[in-house]
Design a protein that fits this description.
This protein has helices spanning 2-17, 22-31, 37-40, 85-93, 140-156, 181-197, 211-214, 236-240, 289-296, 363-370, and strands at 55-57, 61-62, 75-79, 97-103, 106-108, 122-125, 132-135, 160-164, 201-205, 220-224, 242-243, 246-247, 251-256, 258-260, 278-280, 313-318, 325-328, 333-335, 338-339. The protein is α/β, with parallel strands linked by helices and 377 residues long. The radius of gyration is 20 Å and the shape is globular. Bound molecules: 2-acetamido-2-deoxy-beta-D-glucopyranose (3 copies). Keywords: Signal.
Length: 377
């Protein structure tokens, strides 16, 4: 039932977002020459549909050597630095759009462009994350370095970018005067204009304080753990706000679980005994497996969404490692075949920090906002 609902919504979403707007706007811009055609024209870059599954691979990279990829979500978020252009190209041939992830507000010593940052760009080191320091997003040089990263993403063929950590205003970053939300808005709008000019769309992660202000400058939002730590309702404006020829923008949402499974996986990454996968989450101690999935997906026992705004949120259930494992709200479980990348986590060894190596997913910021306790796996 849920699957049918998603498909229908996906089709409606696709129709709405692809409505041709050129004719209409062309005539109105002739009639009133004040309207700037460039700000009103339909985007010339891909934007994600309102309703779609997504897969995140931020530990390792998708292994597409056999010209095969699973799940066929149509959208993958991948690591912009580590995923080679050939992988992006093959993924495109396999029908998968790519959102390329990179940090836009921290400097990591192991990145090839680290030396391009000035000393004045760098703030405090992130607690617990040696080698990673906050960036002063108000400085021209920072934008200059990040624009080069956007060039790299464009050259690799990424369809979208996810500039992470831009909620630097909510961290103890060491800059005076302090970085404030309006600095992020201004920074993100420049990043966005540049990325869009290169044919890519832009996603915003977390940053709930500025979601409304930044709506026009982003094309989708990514949320972590809004069921567990925030309220997903903060995203309902984002998915329902009116805009020219469309309504709202999509939200992709990830919830974390631990899982155990002793069954096998096919070479293609399909769980051979899906019913034997056990999931748990420390924050929902009474809930496991299907009940947990329904909770994280905001579904009731029948698989029907309980709260209307959630209908438009696209949830995927993953482990903190953001590796190949993925569970979807219809109960399907998949494992994307991935390749390890040596040095991917800089000084942070993957084995020692499984589940912690994606610090830049800013979990601690979410925890702090909620006054909650950090839960390290
Ligand atoms: C989450 O929901 C609770 C209870 O409805 C509310 O008090 C709190 O302000 C909400 N938090 C956010 C971030 O919306
Ligand atoms: C949603 O938008 C309305 C109208 O602009 C505003 O009053 C409300 O605070 C917004 N809610 C959230 C959660 O952003
Ligand atoms: C996974 O298990 C570890 C160890 O018990 C725990 O600390 C962590 O919070 C769990 N993660 C989730 C998402 O429940």
């Amino acid at each position: 039932m849920f699957a049918h609902m998603s498909l229908t919504t996906a089709l409606i979403g696709a129709v709405v977002t692809s409505l041709p707007t050129n004719d209409l706007l062309l005539s109105s811009s002739i009639a009133t020459s004040r309207i700037s055609p460039s700000s009103r024209r339909a985007p010339t870059y891909w934007t994600p549909p309102m309703k779609s599954n997504i897969q995140f691979i931020l530990t390792g990279i998708p292994d597409v050597e056999d010209n095969y990829i699973r799940p066929n979500t149509g959208i993958y978020e991948i690591d912009m630095f580590w995923t080679p252009a050939e992988t992006v190209t093959t993924m495109k041939q396999l029908g998968q759009r790519t959102i390329c992830y990179f940090s836009a507000a921290t400097a990591e010593t192991w990145r090839s462009d680290y030396k391009d940052f000035d000393k004045k760009d760098l703030g405090l080191e992130l607690p617990d994350w040696p080698g990673e320091r906050y960036l002063d997003i108000r400085r021209d040089n920072v934008l200059k370095v990040i624009k080069k990263r956007i060039d790299v993403a464009a050259n690799k063929g990424c369809d979208a970018i996810e500039p992470d950590n831009v909620d630097v205003y909510s961290n103890d970053n060491g800059f005076t005067p302090p970085i404030v939300p309006s600095d992020t808005i201004s920074y993100l709008s420049k990043i966005s204009a540049y990325a869009r000019s290169k044919g890519m769309s832009v996603g915003i992660k977390n940053c709930i304080e500025i979601l409304g202000d930044i709506f026009d400058d982003v094309d989708f939002a990514i949320s972590e753990e809004c069921v567990q730590y925030l309220n997903c309702t903060v995203y309902s404006n984002f998915t329902t706000a009116p805009r020219p020829n469309a309504i709202g923008k999509p939200v992709f949402e990830v919830e974390y679980v631990n899982y155990t499974y002793n069954g096998g996986w096919s070479d293609d990454g399909v769980a051979l005994k899906p019913s034997s996968i056990r999931t748990s989450n420390v924050n929902f101690p009474g809930l496991t497996n299907d009940k947990l999935r329904r909770k994280l997906c905001n579904l009731d026992e029948e698989g029907v969404t309980l709260d209307k705004p959630y209908l438009k949120i696209n949830t995927v259930i993953k482990t903190l490692a953001l590796d190949g494992f993925a569970m979807y709200c219809d109960g399907s479980v998949e494992r994307t075949v991935t390749k390890d990348v040596e040095g991917q986590n800089g000084p942070r060894d993957v084995d020692e920090h499984v589940g912690k190596n994606r610090r830049s997913w800013a979990r601690e910021v979410v925890w702090r906002k909620m006054g909650g306790r950090p839960v390290d796996p």
